[in-house]
Amino acid sequence: MTAPHTGGCRCGAVRFEASVEPHHISYCHCSDCRRASGAPVSAFVGFMTDQIALEGKALKTFESGPVTRSFCGMCGSPIAYADKRLNGHIYFTLGSMDMPAYFKPTLHAHVREQLPFLHMPDDLPRHLRTSVARPDGQRPTGTQS
Question: What is the CATH number of the domain that holds 61?
Answer without folding.
Answer: 2.170.150.70
